[in-house]
Amino acid sequence: MSRPDRMISMAEVCLAIGNGELVEDYPEDVRGHSCLIPGQGESNRPIHVVCSPKTEYPAVITAYLLSEQEWEENFKRRKL
Question: What Pfam families has UniProt attached to this entry (predicted)?
Answer without folding.
Answer: DUF4258 (PF14076)
